Amino acid sequence: SQVNTKGPVVPTVGPAPGLQLGVGVAPGAIVGAETGKKPAADGERFQLERTISIHEAPVHSVAMSTQLNIVATASWDATINLYNLSTDKIVRTLGGSSSAEEKMGGLYAVAFSKTVPDILGCTSCDKNVYLWNHQTGKPLAKLGGGQQGHQDEVNGIDFHSSQQVMCTASDDKKVIIWDFQEGIVLRTLETHTKAVYGSTFLGQEMQYFVATCCFDMKTRIFDMRDKQVVALLQEHTDDIIGIDYSSAKGLIATGSDDGNICIWNTRTWKLQHKINTRDDLKNPDNEVKRVSFSPDGMLLAAACSSGSVQVYDMSATPKHIAKLGDHKDCVFDVCWGICPTTRAKMLVSASHDRTSMYWREVL
């Protein structure tokens, strides 16, 4: 299917290793709402602004717009809500329609395109990847089915920082690299032995590389040009759910059901730090779901099964600095934003208790 977008056209892709990802415009600063209301207690790094209850089923993913003060929340109720942090209102709901063009299955992940800010992508239990113009609410593409698309539930999505390319991770043990303007498959990465839950591009510094996290307890670094695994990272002892890359720090973070967060150095592919959240929380059963670096790489947030978000200072050896939230169920995802006026960091969670929580850093 054809997706009409504004912006540079993805270069023609020839035989491997011909995936051409050139230098482009870096994504803009992430911005969010300025809604400071009350002073925080001494010692609090973040204050809760509000709890957001806008879904009828568990919220599984959340993403912050790079240009607008909105977050996108993706739910098992098969909708995405675009929510304005300043006005405390839903700007638009994507999905939920009975029309075949707009109807989606339960949603597992959502992300904004970095090169074409009007485009939003999401992944579903119905084996499809959906692209929307979130400014107009218009569906752009439904990618799936056939021999090239995913053959099972699609768990994760990420967009490249400078080209119109995205990657999606699936229970079918594959990660697919797509040209999202043309709606075509560029590469399929197939060496995983179990379900793949997440994938992330490694920024401009390593523009040909994509990292994946898998239920076989391994993190793989692929060179998209020839689909070869250039590094295999092994430390976790249970399913790996979350993965994120910090361009500012040159680090990969992985979160696992084993309760640990592993920090990997992308220059050496060695384990740099291992964070035991079960010790920090004094909870022997805590599982780490998705993880997210702040834009400057100085903080790391981890969504946890215990109903909270754990925040770590990454300026040196990781230091636990905050336990946020008292969700009634698992927190599965968390995203960062930056206030455009105060530059305070913001956090928004996605929880299976059907809510999100919104915090602001106290400056």
Automatic annotation (TrEMBL):
It comes from the Eukaryota. Keywords: Repeat, WD repeat. Residues 244-329 form the Anaphase-promoting complex subunit 4-like WD40 domain. InterPro entries: Apc4-like_WD40_dom, WD40/YVTN_repeat-like_dom_sf, WD40_repeat_CS, WD40_repeat_dom_sf, WD40_rpt. The keyword Nucleus does not apply. The keyword Membrane does not apply. WD repeats lie at residues 52-93, 147-188, 233-274, 281-315. SMART domains: WD40. Gene3D superfamilies: YVTN repeat-like/Quinoprotein amine dehydrogenase (2.130.10.10). Pfam families: ANAPC4_WD40 (PF12894), WD40 (PF00400). This is Anaphase-promoting complex subunit 4-like WD40 domain-containing protein.
